[in-house]
Amino acid sequence: MDSVSVHHSGLIGDSAPMALLADQIATAARSNLTVLVFGESGTGKELVAHAIHDGSKRSNKHLVSFNCGALTETLLESELFGYARGAFTGAIRDQKGLFEAADGGTLFLDEIGEMSPSCQVKLLRVLQEHKVRAVGAQTETPVDVRVIGATNRNLPHEIALGRFRQDLFYRLAVLTIATPTLRERSTDIPLLVHHFLKEITNGSNATTLRAFDHEALSALQRHDWPGNVRQLRHVVERLIAQESNGGPITAKAVRQVIEEISRFAVACDIPLGFRQNDSLDDFLARTTLGLYNHFLAVTGNHSEVARILGTHRNTLYLRVERARRRLELAQR
């Protein structure tokens, strides 16, 4: 793999950080080792997993992607490992899990830091034994799966807090890849903008870099992009939607959209208070609900709240429900 481009699993850029990323992807693709991809939200961790799979000897088999934070613990285990007939109400037949679905190929586990302790134990066993036991089953099934995990959490910190198993971390992090932030590779922004314009306008003739004048691109490059590439695309979409005269997008228009986003972020900021006799779990639950309710009041849309907070809408739903149950128990 000589470079990273739009032709390689959607990764775009010719900056030094992206060249390093391309080398790391190539190294990972040549091996069969487990990989842990870490980086901020919006930096393309799933694209890295696709690139590794596409460049590996497993490319002729399935790449199965799964968000570990999108389901409850019980459903997560059933989804990953499958279940036997009669294992629980509604299990009317045997069902293969994602490990068996990915047999011979690659299983990408996104948001792996959200996995429950019970699931972590079972995942560790699969990685060690290369066998899966479906929920309610008496026997194990051999599987040949290459696992790539991804997280935006600081897993060593999670280990110190007792929320992530150290042995699982070392089993996953045989190879590690850090996805660079957009602010670390701002020189790639013109290429990204050009690519987004093609996608947004479906490759029409209007899709040229001239749609953004030089000062507009400079303004984009000077921004720090806390939401990374995902946020840049959102801004480009806003600018294209607002452009009505057919002329080039100016630096003034860029600054206006970025300022609107910044004002929105400030408007959504709320103070966090710690109540007397709060446990840490109670405080975190109250904080979660406070943030969620505030953002929901501002946006009126659950999916938009999830986008702002940089998480999957199903993950956010589960976190909110857990927080509500926690506070209900605390009030009894």
| First and last CA, distance | 59 Å
> Secondary-structure element order, as H and E?
HEHEHHEHEEEHHEHHHHHHH
Gyration radius from CA atoms, angstroms: 22 Å
CATH 4th-level superfamily of the largest domain: P-loop containing nucleotide triphosphate hydrolases
Per CATH, the class of the largest domain reads Alpha Beta
Number of helices: 14
Categorize the overall geometry. Answer: globular
CATH architecture of the largest domain: 3-Layer(aba) Sandwich
Number of strands: 7
Strand order of the largest sheet: 2-3-6-1-7
Largest sheet: 5 strands, parallel
What structural keywords apply?
single chain, Rossmann fold, two-stranded antiparallel sheet, 332 residues, alpha/beta, Helicase, Ruva Protein, domain 3
In short:
The protein has 3 domains: 16-178, P-loop containing nucleotide triphosphate hydrolases (Rossmann fold); 185-267, Helicase, Ruva Protein, domain 3 (Orthogonal Bundle), CATH 1.10.8.60; 280-331, no CATH class. Helices cover 49% and strands 8% of the residues.
